[in-house]
Amino acid sequence: MTQKYLNELTRTIIGAAIEVHKELGPGLLESVYEKCLTHLLKEQGLFVISQQKVPLAFRGLYLECDLRFDLMVENAIIVEIKSIECLLPIHEAQLLTYLRLLEKPKGVLINFNCTNIFREGQKTLVTDLYAKLPKGY
Question: pLDDT-derived band of residue 95, with 50, 70 and 90 as boundaries?
Answer without folding.
Answer: very high
